[in-house]
Specification:
The protein has one domain: TTHA1013-like (TTHA1013/TTHA0281-like, 2-Layer Sandwich). Strands 3-2-1-4 form a 4-stranded mixed beta sheet, covered by helices on one side. It has 70 residues and is of the alpha+beta class. The chain has 1 helix and 4 strands. Strand 1 (2-10) and strand 2 (15-20) form a beta hairpin. The longest helix is centred in the middle third of the chain and has 18 residues, at 32-49.
Length: 70
């Protein structure tokens, strides 16, 4: 099963955050790379705790970061 993980930058908090409703997962980190690492650890743990088989599970990461140019 595929799970879409939406990752966005919060300009006010200066942090990246990730949300996935199907796992369910909500994490944040100051670093994009650290957030990806945390997701890859947390997602299988959450799925396992909910008795969901992770053998054919894939994570699809979609990231957004908006910036003003003026």
């Amino acid at each position: 099963m595929d799970h879409l993980v939406n990752i966005r930058w919060d300009d006010e908090a200066h942090t990246w955050y990730a949300i996935c409703d199907t796992i369910p997962l909500a994490l944040e980190s100051d670093s994009f790379d650290d957030l990806i690492k945390r997701i890859k650890v947390a997602a299988p743990e959450i799925l396992s705790e909910n008795n969901i088989n992770t053998d054919s599970t894939r994570l699809h990461f979609r990231a957004e970061h908006w910036e003003y140019i003026a």
